[in-house]
Amino acid sequence: MPAIPSHVPEPSRTDPALIRNFCIIAHIDHGKSTLADRMLQLTGVVEQRQMRAQYLDRMDIERERGITIKSQAVRLPWAPSHDKSKTHILNMIDTPGHVDFTYEVSRSLAACEGTILLVDAAQGIEAQTLANLYLAMENDLTIIPVLNKIDLPAAQPEKFAEELAHLIGCEPDDVLKVSAKTGLGVEALLDKVVEQVPAPVGVKDAPARAMIFDSVYDSYRGVVTYVRVIDGQLNKRERIRMMSTGATHELLEIGTNSPEMLSSDGLGVGEVGYLITGVKDVRQSKVGDTVTSQHKGAQEALGGYKDPKPMVFSGLYPLDGSDYPELREALDKLQLNDAALVYEPETSAALGFGFRVGFLGLLHLDVIRERLEREFGLDLIATAPNVVYRVLMEDGSEHTVTNPSEFPEGKISEVYEPVVRATILAPSEFTGSIMELCQTRRGVLLGMDYLSEERVEIRYTLPLAEIVFDFFDQLKSKTRGYASLDYEPTGEQTSSLVKVDILLHGDKVDAFSAITHKDQAYAYGVRLVAKLKELIPRQAFEVPVQAAIGSRVIARETIRAIRKDVLAKCYGGDISRKRKLLEKQKEGKKRMKMVGSVEVPQEAFIAVLSSDDSAGSGKGKK
């Protein structure tokens, strides 16, 4: 563990009046992690020789892609310039900026009293900036508007300060201008945090109540739980109780992150820190739960978080069936790190045992799959992502469909699909092409506003199924990369949806079924049978590959039979001899066709089901 500088104050009970809890929210790539780096340097909690870019991003994936996936809490000592005699304690949480990790952001906001709203001075307000701002307003947080990257030649601080002021309802002069890269203006920003963010309010002598806002699994120490103390205090070696499960544990270690773990005797009102109880069972530490003392504990739990609803489902299967128990264990541990992950076991005729996993979006799917492969050494197949449908039958029964193979047979009355309210921000010159794209994806225009002469905000209602594939890629290519997208679920609507089945030699292959809109079913069927014709090796008999809706075939390709050259030994002679040999071969093929079955190689399943070509659209998503 890196050495902690000697001038970091020992985290004993700090006077709540000197504590400031705040987080940094912004769109992806607007400089949150860089600003956090400068704050760590300025407050001296990380020595210069240990400093590295994206210091708080601990995962390899975060560092490689330059994105934040997990929120990180850190304690910073700061003596403001107007009163150097008092050292304040700033608890900062660096949050993700991507739409898929909004749940992570909402949990961080609940642990704070204030937030820094960071906007790139060269790009201006983006869709996710608005979404995070509304989240902060819902939580009644003090918002400090900041323009970052003012050292860039393309920066337009005056223009975007006006936009921000108009949005928040303050004066353009109130918007702070900083450069996280050079450190310009960061000291003034920390002073502003001390000045504007209210101190935490809590009852010191009340029974202890602390909110769990995050937790991670450490293979050596078990579950590490991150908490924000609301009332009372938690002390080392006392027994604590989790209020939702009723489980009790002994507090083996308690302390703060500075930014490495620093143990202390306890945590008081308003403090943010970690607890270690030695628990190995990941289900014992639930995000959103309230921690209290076992002896004379609190009776009433704190309000938790709304459980996130998975938006996209995908099947995860181990390439080697014997890895199934390892995959279950890996998902258990990841669920602790990522409270938004849900999964249940499922089986597939083609791929064996696996899990149906719910994600908040495509980037979330991509990151979880990569973490499973890297951190747990698993080889996985991910099936193409799909959303949840609700099917009403004519007899009044109702089915929830998370997998096309669950789509019911028989007379269907109505099919409901999830819809989202999408907000797109882009330069106004691209308005036409954005609207055209949304119309082709069955979108309904809700309205549009001009934030300034050059920038427009367009709002659409879109079916979620139309977004989860390549919508974002298409949006970026039509707007030369300038558009940004944010979406939130708004319920469901009825649609003309059908299930397209793939038949091989007359037999249905469940793994290839898909639910699509009636108008797109034909194109999907044609594309898939053409792909399968290339991937399935030729058999000794002719194999028809068909796409069908119910009993009606909508597309067909034929895999031609492999034929032995039976005429090779005929050199000259009567034609009837050749005909006899050909007829005999034809009879044999006919007999074989009646009893033969088609073996689909594993590679064909992986190529067709793998979400690589579709999920790739989530990788650079902003």
From TrEMBL:
One of its GO terms (molecular function) is GTPase activity. It catalyses: GTP + H2O = GDP + phosphate + H(+). One of its GO terms (biological process) is positive regulation of translation. The keyword GTP-binding applies. Keywords: Cell membrane, Elongation factor, GTP-binding, Hydrolase, Membrane, Nucleotide-binding, Protein biosynthesis. Residues 17-201 form the Tr-type G domain. One of its GO terms (cellular component) is plasma membrane. GTP binds at D29, H30, G31, K32, S33, T34, N148, K149, I150, D151. CDD domains: EF4_II (cd03699), EF4_III (cd16260), LepA (cd01890), lepA_C (cd03709). Its EC number is 3.6.5.n1. The keyword Nucleotide-binding applies. InterPro entries: EF-4, EFG_III/V, EFG_V-like, EFTu-like_2, G_TR_CS, LepA_C_sf, LepA_CTD, LepA_IV. It is found in: Cell membrane. It is a peripheral membrane protein. Pfam families: EFG_C, GTP_EFTU, GTP_EFTU_D2, LepA_C. HAMAP family: LepA. PANTHER family: TRANSLATION FACTOR GUF1 HOMOLOG, CHLOROPLASTIC, TRANSLATION FACTOR GUF1-RELATED. Required for accurate and efficient protein synthesis under certain stress conditions. May act as a fidelity factor of the translation reaction, by catalyzing a one-codon backward translocation of tRNAs on improperly translocated ribosomes. Back-translocation proceeds from a post-translocation (POST) complex to a pre-translocation (PRE) complex, thus giving elongation factor G a second chance to translocate the tRNAs correctly. Binds to ribosomes in a GTP-dependent manner. Belongs to the TRAFAC class translation factor GTPase superfamily. Classic translation factor GTPase family. LepA subfamily. This is Elongation factor 4. It comes from Streptomyces coeruleorubidus. The gene is lepA.
